[in-house]
Design a protein that fits this description.
22-stranded antiparallel β-barrel, mainly beta, 5-stranded mixed β-sheet, 43 strands, about 5% helix
């Protein structure tokens, strides 16, 4: 079996294996591989071809060619079924959804499970962030879609796992990126083997950007450290990261503003100096022990992690809007401590493989809200910290147990099954009682079974079927406000459950890879936005919904110098029941009907990506690889009423990448990109159900990028 160099590590079933599996991952650009070996909610390593579910793998080469390696959206556009929108706003995280799960998120990543080097980047309540991920040091990104993502537990409508590369060669790499609209980034990384059995990686980067709209400048610093030790049957990996960021927030635009000029900023953003600062640290430890002999116990793994995250955000909320006693202010300030642990055992049961384990996660927030102004009348100052209006302690925790097994039933037939049972508790303790007591607690329990079957009609051709039940709890933010505007936790909000089925096929031939998938997901008690205005968002269960669609992906080496890659998605995401939502401000009683059959806000019916890459033989005059990229997205409903849509668009990008060895120890890499080649006006993302109707976030105009990277091996 080839080395396990492409490993997706579910936090439910194999998260603790991430460190050990990463030991054989290459440093730097990935080399072509005919057989990618993965662990994808599976009890044992297997080829991507053999996984009974939809899975995409992005190697380091794809990441390095996609851009400055600042945002996941640069490379994830290649993945079918996944929408990764760059909001062109560093004050807000990317907008990512998988088959429509996560589309309602107004900020952060919602409804998807995020994993970074085996450590969850999603909190126990289901909210996640991706800005701190080390894309430059990644060996690969793996994306799991469909039923088997339910084995990650709560709020896992899909899974995105980023895996760093262990040290293969001691080296140092320095890089610089420069682009339009003031993009500047410098990065340096070191890989070394200081002693027998030890390997060390460290990197740091600094990013500055002016942005293409007023009030959109950003400054970011990232630092990452990885220390690995391997001796006999023991493997230990320690990881640490530090992330600080200051970013202005240009906010969204109304329909009239967007039509008048896509490079403008709404006046309220300038008036209140809307901005956000982030401070995040994280540490994690993996310990893997392999048992000798032929006994039933194969290995044990322990993973522990902890971190802190602090956020201060100035919003554009008018002073008069904050006058009611129940308002929490226009400045959000919280400090979070989070951590968790997972222990698992891998068993040999004849020809079957079994994994069992338990996991715990905790998140504690010390949250305050302040007025975003001081004084009155002519003496009033906006965009500063004013009086305290909110003081809470929030906590989210999960306790889970899981088991999964792989059974080869025959030479060409195998079954994979798993079960995850868990409990999530969400609690708020209100310490600002002048406007009522918002304290409360909710408990949710879930049992997520999954079953997959794989049949191989012929070598290199596999068919699969899988089914699962998933669960998604409300987040702490979605429980913060009651729909009627009164004090108290939103205790009427229930978790949503899904039943998912997937049928698919994968074909691998020399120079050709094809994948096709049909899927459907029925959701009960779908969580939706009731009202969103004045810095307060309340949520409700809107009944039953359905997502159904098809995904196609392929890669063809049409000629030695010519490669074609394409992905396409069709998604029908609709409400199956009529419900009422809010229209107008203020609104404490739903007053606007949403018809059954309306599309789920934030979803796209169609999306596609295609790439034509030409890399001639070395003897020809043209050096490097020249590629034309094309991305298309269908129109997007901005609200549940479907009263307005962001128009669909198609963008073309041009890239050139050249890698040249200078000496036996040194190599030079140059990347040049021209994105949005024809300068198309488009809304890159939408703010779903925004109460001020500022739905539209403009996509970037034509943008140029030049990246220079130098690598020296010792």
């Amino acid at each position: 079996m080839p080395a396990a160099r492409n490993t997706l590590v579910p936090s439910a079933l194999a998260i603790a294996c991430a460190a050990a599996c990463a030991q054989t991952a290459p440093a730097g650009p990935a080399e072509p591989s005919t057989e990618s070996i993965v662990i994808t909610g599976s009890a044992r390593a297997q080829r991507v071809l053999d996984s009974p579910y939809a899975l995409s793998v992005l190697e380091a080469d794809a990441l390095r060619a996609a851009g400055p390696m600042v945002n996941l959206s640069e490379a994830l556009v290649r993945v079918p079924g996944l929408v990764a929108n760059n909001r062109n706003n560093h004050a807000q995280d990317l907008q990512i959804s998988s088959r429509g799960f996560g589309a309602r998120a107004a900020f952060g990543v919602r409804g998807l499970r995020l994993v970074a080097d085996g450590i969850p980047a999603s909190m126990p309540d289901g909210q996640g962030q991706v800005a701190h991920l080390d894309l430059a040091g990644a060996a690969r990104i793996e994306v799991l879609r469909g039923p088997f993502s339910a084995l990650y537990g709560n709020s896992s409508g899909g899974v995105i796992a980023v895996h760093g590369a262990a040290v293969r060669h001691p080296q140092v790499e320095a890089s610089a990126d420069a682009g339009r609209f003031g993009l500047r980034q410098a990065r340096i990384g070191l890989a070394a083997r200081p002693a027998e059995g030890l390997d060390l990686q460290a990197s740091t980067s600094v990013l500055d950007s002016d942005g293409f709209r007023p009030q959109s400048a950003a400054h970011r610093q990232l630092g990452h450290l990885r220390l690995g030790w391997q001796h006999g049957t023991e493997t230990v990996v320690l990881r640490a990261s530090d992330h600080t960021q200051r970013a202005q927030d240009p906010l969204g635009l109304t329909r009239a503003q967007f039509a008048a000029g896509w490079r403008q900023t709404t006046p309220q953003a300038l008036q209140f100096d809307t901005r956000k600062t982030i401070r995040q640290t994280q540490e994690g430890l993996h310990w893997r022990h392999r048992f000798a002999g032929d006994g039933p116990l194969a290995e044990s793994t322990l993973m522990v992690y902890n971190g802190t995250r602090g956020v201060t955000q100035w919003q554009a909320i008018a002073a008069a809007t904050q006058a009611p006693a129940r308002h929490g202010g226009g400045l959000v300030d919280f400090d979070r401590a989070y951590g968790g642990a997972e222990a698992r055992l891998a068993w040999r049961l004849g020809s079957a493989e079994l994994v069992t384990g338990v996991s715990v996660e905790d998140q504690r927030d010390d949250r305050q809200g302040y007025e975003n102004f001081t004084g009155t009348g002519a003496a009033q100052v906006l965009g500063v910290q004013g009086r305290l209006r909110r003081d809470e302690r929030n906590r989210a925790s999960t306790r889970e147990a899981f088991a999964q097994a792989d059974w080869p039933l025959a030479e060409r037939l195998a079954v994979t099954g798993g079960l995850r049972h868990g409990r999530v508790r969400l609690r708020t303790e209100d310490r600002f009682l002048a406007n009522g007591d918002d304290s409360g607690v909710l408990d949710f329990r879930y049992t997520n079974p999954a079953l997959g079957l794989r049949w191989s009609p012929a070598p290199g051709w596999n068919l699969h079927a899988s089914a699962a039940r998933g669960f998604e709890s409300p987040t702490l933010g979605e429980l913060a406000y009651r729909a009627d505007g009164q004090a108290g936790f939103n205790t009427t909000l229930r978790g949503q459950t899904s039943r998912q089925v997937e049928l698919g096929g994968k074909l691998q031939r020399p120079g050709l890879q094809l994948e096709a998938t049909l899927f459907t997901a029925r959701v009960d008690n779908e969580i939706g936005v009731l009202s969103n205005s004045g810095g307060r968002s309340s949520f409700q269960n809107v009944g039953r919904t359905q997502r159904a669609g098809a995904e196609l992906a392929g890669q063809w080496q049409a000629a030695p110098a010519l490669r074609v890659q394409a992905a396409a998605t069709w998604l029908q995401a609709r409400y199956r029941e009529r419900f009422l939502t809010c229209s107008g401000v203020p609104c404490t009683v739903p007053n606007l009907p949403v018809a059954a059959g309306n599309r789920i806000a934030g979803t796209q019916r169609t999306s596609g990506y295609a790439e034509l890459a030409w890399q001639p033989a070395a003897r020809l005059a043209w050096p490097g690889e020249l590629a034309l990229e094309w991305r298309a997205v269908g129109r997007t409903p901005v609200n549940d009423a479907n009263s307005d849509f962001a128009a669909g668009y198609a963008l073309a990008n041009l890239r050139w990448r050249f890698v040249q060895p200078l000496t036996s120890s040194d190599s030079f890499e140059l990347l040049a990109r021209l994105d949005n080649l024809f300068d198309r006006l488009h809304a890159g993302s939408v703010i779903v159900n925004d109460g001020n109707a500022r739905f539209f976030e403009p996509g970037a105009p034509r943008s140029a990028l030049l990246s220079v990277r130098w690598q020296h091996r010792f």
